[in-house]
Structure formats: structure tokens, C-alpha cells
Write a structure and sequence with these properties.
Blueprint: H1 6-14, E1 22-31, E2 37-45, E3 54-59, H2 61-130, H3 152-155
Antiparallel strand pairs: 1-2, 2-3
Helix pairs in contact: 1-2
């Protein structure tokens, strides 16, 4: 089954089987203490006078019920897988659209942040160049270092000073 998916193999296995629904048919049986059973019987299409799908001299009741239910269970599981695939595809497509919106919003906000940080840095730098926020206050002729930029932490992405 390496080249065929389980779902495709299940679809292929359903092709050509006796149309259902099926029902178990159990005769002359015995139920054991452990809950298992042994009956003559098998599975039949659920219509009057239909020929059996299979007959045996000894089958457990649970096995016969499972065999009779198998085609509908397999069809139901295939349908659920198909629905789940459709939902995943729809969610991915929606997510891609929303992701694009979020990326657009992120890029817009990031650009606004970068512009604001640049404005802060420029204002700080221009203030020192114009002498508006710092002036020489050290001994004559020896300027002291300008104070640390209070916005540096923001400008450096939140790193502590």
C-alpha cells in the first residue's frame, strides 16, 4: 500500500461489494463466560431473501456484527476524512488571508515604530548639537560626557542600560 493511501485503498475495497446495509445472522450459538461466543451464521444483506455475504460454522457475535457494519463504517470514516481535509484546506486558506492581513498590519506598525524611534534619536542628537539639553559644566576647558540618552533602551529594542 505504499503507492496508495489508506483512504484510496478503502475506497477500492468498497468497490463491487454487495450493496448494504448488511446484518449479522447468527444461529445455534453459545456464549462463553469470557463474553465471546460461537455461532453458525454470517452476514447477509439487510433485505428479505438475499443470499448471504458469507457463512461459517463458528463466528463470534461481535465479529459478525463488526463485519456486517464494516462497509458503512468505512464509508463514514472516508466521509469524515474528506470533510476534515476540506476544513483544513479552508482554514489554511483563511489563515493565509488573515496572515497576510496580520503581516500587513505588522509591517505598518513596525514602520511607524521605526519612524518614531528615528524621530526620538534625531531629536536627542539635534538637542546636543544645538546645546539645548547639555552644556559644559565640567572644569574649564574639559567638557563632561553628555548624559545617557534616556531613549537608548527603546532604540536598542528594549535592552537594559
Amino acid at each position: 500500500m505504499s503507492d496508495v493511501s489508506v483512504r484510496d485503498a478503502a475506497r477500492q475495497a468498497l468497490e463491487g461489494i454487495t450493496p448494504g446495509p448488511w446484518r449479522p445472522s447468527l444461529l445455534d450459538g453459545v456464549v462463553h463466560e469470557d463474553g465471546s461466543s460461537s455461532y453458525r451464521g454470517g452476514a447477509y444483506p439487510d433485505r428479505k431473501g438475499a443470499t448471504p455475504i458469507f457463512l461459517t460454522n463458528s463466528i463470534d457475535q461481535h465479529d459478525a456484527e463488526f463485519i456486517a457494519a464494516a462497509p458503512e463504517l468505512v464509508r463514514g470514516l472516508i466521509d469524515e476524512l474528506d470533510r476534515a481535509d476540506s476544513e483544513v484546506i479552508a482554514a489554511e486558506q483563511s489563515g493565509y488571508r488573515q496572515g497576510a492581513i496580520h503581516r500587513h498590519d505588522y509591517n505598518r506598525v513596525a514602520a511607524e515604530r521605526d519612524a518614531a524611534l528615528s524621530t526620538l534619536q534625531n531629536a536627542w542628537d539635534e538637542g546636543f548639537e544645538a546645546g539645548a539639553t547639555w552644556h559644559q559644566s565640567g572644569p574649564t576647558g574639559i567638557p563632561n560626557d553628555p548624559p545617557l540618552n534616556p531613549y537608548a533602551r527603546i532604540l536598542d529594542g528594549g535592552a537594559q542600560q
